[in-house]
Amino acid sequence: MKLSDFKFDVPKKLVSLYPTENRDESRLMVLHRDTGKIEHRVFKDIVEYFGEGDVFVTNDTKVFPARLYGNKEKTGAEIEVFLLRELNSELRLWDVLVDPARKIRVGNKLYFGDSDLVAEVIDNTTSRGRTIRFLFDGTEEEFHKTIDSLGETPLLKEFIERKVEAEDRERYQTVFAKNVGAVAAPTAGLHFTPHLLKRLELQGVDVTPITLHVGLGTFRQVDVEDLTKHKMDSENYSIPEETVALVNRALDEKKRVVAVGTTSLKTVESSVTANGRLKASAGWTDKFIIPPYEFKIANALITNFHLPESTLLMTASAFGGYDLVMKAYKEAIKEKYRFFSYGDAMLIL
């Protein structure tokens, strides 16, 4: 497929700047692949579609406050550093993006807070990319606490055009977030509440985690018309044995395996045995799912409403079928569904 196949206009007012007051009261569009039927529900109604033996696969990655504001040594110029990933915890080496890039060079020292945290630029990786080393004498735990206190929740400013607020630290995190490492939330999971998870459990639905640390590459603009030429950045993932056992049992019993978000979908589809079963594994995946694609593990998907020409939309279209998903998006715009991270949800059956 081509990039232009995913081009359409979303009115700016439909890009949601804030979440709904209650997580599970966002709207839910339900797509039935077998009939093409589209339903309009509320997210907490999702329990009506599942029962005994079905499995929800959630992504338990936890967003860390990856955006740091600081000053350059000597000049005191204001700078912004976006932490992408830790390269070496012992040496405190990090892969980062910097702004303004032209002013931040190898050898520069950067100061954050009241000089609570100092970093030195070690290498240039791309025009905005740098490798930095934090000069910090405390323990690993103290270091991460310092990052946590100085950093800001990394809402994607290109899409959510407002200042980050205190409540974002809680609302831009799923209730099952556990393993720190993401720079963006797995947003399909933001709609769940402890009460909703309990209701699913009472219906005999198993909820089980994988971990995929969402990187910025997921949101990187696709700049090639031929989608097969787009390369995704690698993201770190792990799939535990307990999840494998539950998912494979559900597949054997012809039950639903529900990927909660495209990150969960990508992860389970990255670790499939020759006979089409999930296997426990850990490592890095750069899997990019576009139509047409034959899914081996998940047979239902929960996802948000994504922006045009995004890799997330392409993956959702591969799962739901291009024509049905595009029809659903037209309807979503007409019905004024809310888009992007803090927006509404779609369930594809």
From TrEMBL:
Organism: Algoriphagus halophilus
Subcellular localization(s) per the UniProt record: Cytoplasm
Classification via InterPro entries: QueA (IPR003699), QueA_dom1 (IPR042118), QueA_dom2 (IPR042119), QueA_sf (IPR036100)
Segments crossing the lipid bilayer: none
Pathway entry: tRNA modification; tRNA-queuosine biosynthesis
Top-level taxon of the source organism: Bacteria
Subunit structure: Monomer.
A Pfam family assignment: Queuosine_synth
Role of this protein: Transfers and isomerizes the ribose moiety from AdoMet to the 7-aminomethyl group of 7-deazaguanine (preQ1-tRNA) to give epoxyqueuosine (oQ-tRNA).
Protein name: S-adenosylmethionine:tRNA ribosyltransferase-isomerase
EC class: transferase
Gene Ontology biological process terms from the UniProt entry: tRNA queuosine(34) biosynthetic process
GO cellular component term of the entry, any: cytoplasm
Keywords tagged on the record: Cytoplasm, Isomerase, Queuosine biosynthesis, S-adenosyl-L-methionine, Transferase
Reactions performed catalytically: 7-aminomethyl-7-carbaguanosine(34) in tRNA + S-adenosyl-L-methionine = epoxyqueuosine(34) in tRNA + adenine + L-methionine + 2 H(+)
EC number: 2.4.99.17
GO molecular function term, any single one: S-adenosylmethionine:tRNA ribosyltransferase-isomerase activity
Family: Belongs to the QueA family.
